[in-house]
Write a structure and sequence with these properties.
The protein is of the alpha/beta class. It has two domains: 180 residues, 3-Layer(aba) Sandwich (Rossmann fold); 122 residues, N-(1-d-carboxylethyl)-l-norvaline Dehydrogenase, domain 2. Helices cover 46% and strands 20% of the residues. α4 links the parallel β7 and β8. Bound molecules: ketopantoate. The site of ketopantoate has 12 residues, from α6. Ketopantoate binds next to α6. Catalyzes the NADPH-dependent reduction of ketopantoate into pantoic acid. It is an enzyme of class 1 (oxidoreductase). Its EC number is 1.1.1.169.
Length: 309
């Protein structure tokens, strides 16, 4: 399968690297982390897993025009706020038989993609994998968890066959992946998880695992989960409070060594996705008439304390 990864930061490079290692034809694209692209071009992509290092040979580009010919699968991993620019840049790679998969945090990216592509070609996914960019060309696979994929709008049996193929390719690459007919629910569940983990790990500059170990932080995390649950329930997430707390705890444990993506943004003085995570929950809460003071507060804190929010 010819696969282009648009937004090859930590997570995009992890997926692209694993897919390339399993024999797929992969291109990593990143137009902002030029040193990362240069390092991969010079020395390959180094994947650090449990103390061991492995180098994967995979083409990396900072100009999308270096990727020739139509692509079977375009994986979108850019930050939520860069979605529009990413699809505009990558559009020349998309043919009528291509699939575009958003594996981003946050909600609303589907609508942006659907302005440029037929809905039938768009897939949405969520992942509990954790990856950290250690330095240019080196990523740490810092936590494992399931990846779930589904389509925005079913187009008949060929659609099922195609998504099945993608799921298989991901699993063959060592990425535990499932097809989910109700992907929308999983996107909102992931939003709940990110809302609980990302701003607190960022504000306190801690790895995901610490959130559950520190009693005071654990209590705040639980309050965020309780407050967010009625908002995501309106989008099909039908978990009890206990189940939701367990999900968050499970992800913190599985990615205990990971720096959340928001904290990695903070360390690189990059804009964060706070408006697309807790900010999105606060806006949706307002629309639904559900009070979300904690989400609002966390959004304001991240906005105020970090450069460019
Ligand atoms: O999605 C993540 C993120 O950091 O954005 C988790 C799953 C919390 C892993 O760190």
């Amino acid at each position: 399968m010819r696969i282009a990864i648009i937004g090859s930061g930590a997570l995009g490079s992890l997926f692209g690297g694993l897919l390339a290692r399993s024999g797929q034809q992969v291109w990593l694209y990143n137009c902002s982390l030029v040193e990362h692209v240069d390092a991969i071009r010079a020395r390959g992509l180094t994947l650090q897993v449990e103390g061991a290092r492995q180098t994967i040979s995979v083409p990396a580009v900072s100009d999308v025009r270096e990727i020739r010919g139509a692509i079977d699968l375009l994986g979108i991993f850019v930050k939520a706020y860069d979605t529009e620019q990413a699809i505009q840049d990558a559009l020349p790679l998309v043919g009528s038989g291509s699939w575009v998969l958003s594996l981003q945090n946050g909600v609303g990216q589907e609508e942006i993609l659907a302005r440029y592509l037929p809905k039938g070609q768009i897939l949405r996914g969520v992942t509990a994998q954790g990856a950290t960019l250690v330095e240019a060309g080196i990523i740490h696979w810092a936590g494992r968890g399931p990846t779930r994929l589904g389509y925005l709008s079913p187009m008949g049996s060929s659609t099922h066959q195609k998504i099945g193929e993608i799921v298989e390719v991901f699993n063959q690459a060592g990425i535990e992946t499932y097809y989910e007919p109700e992907i929308h629910h999983w996107v909102w569940e992931k939003l709940l998880i990110n809302a609980a983990i990302n701003p607190l790990t960022t504000l306190f500059d801690i790895r995901n695992g610490i959130l559950m170990e520190d009693p005071a932080l654990r209590a705040i995390t639980e309050d965020v989960v309780r407050e967010t649950l009625p908002v995501v329930a309106a989008h099909g997430v039908l978990l009890s409070t206990e189940e939701a707390l367990q999900r968050v705890e499970g992800i913190c444990q599985a990615t205990a060594q990971n720096l959340s993506s928001m904290l990695q943004d903070r360390h690189r003085s990059k804009r964060t996705e706070i408006e697309y995570i807790n900010g999105a929950i606060a806006r949706e809460g307002q629309r639904l008439g559900v009070p979300t003071p904690l989400n609002r507060f966390l959004t304001q804190l991240v906005r105020k304390t970090l450069p460019g929010g």
